[in-house]
Amino acid sequence: MKPETGNQGEFEPMDSCDERIMSVINELHHRDDPIPNDLNERVQFVLELEAALDAKVASVYRPTEMALTRGDTGLTVNQGDPASITFDCETITVMVTPRPSAVQEIRLDGWIGPEGTYEVEVRSPQGTRRASTDETGRFALEGLPNDEMFQLVIRPDEALQREGLPAVVVTPAVRL
To answer: What's the whole-model pTM score?
Structure first.
């Protein structure tokens, strides 16, 4: 029996061999990278926040270029603190760094730009914790559960909102 792959160009119609390959790829995707069960709820959550609350949803920022930082022995090339997570939307950038503080607890140090005062909520399965930033946008929260999902809700003060910042910024949930 002769295989059906002879002389196929990139614009030829799919044949049974192509269909088998696509079927295997589809099975691999379903097994190894399935669509999250709660995808519809996540999308609905974002749409409701943006529509009803005038909230912006920040995304996780992943730098693509290397940054120079000063170490003990001169300049080193890296991408910052590997434990830091940066969230970004059109008008606000938030960087948080979780650090161990006690058994099964962490301290969360955070910085929000542009500078100003913000109310910050950290939501986790254990509940909600609140903090206020100083005038430079810095905040810290102690006693957060280790290895749990968390989400930040950021509310700029009225002066920052008059400058064009949204009333609410929400980050995606990430695991500490």
So the answer is: 0.59
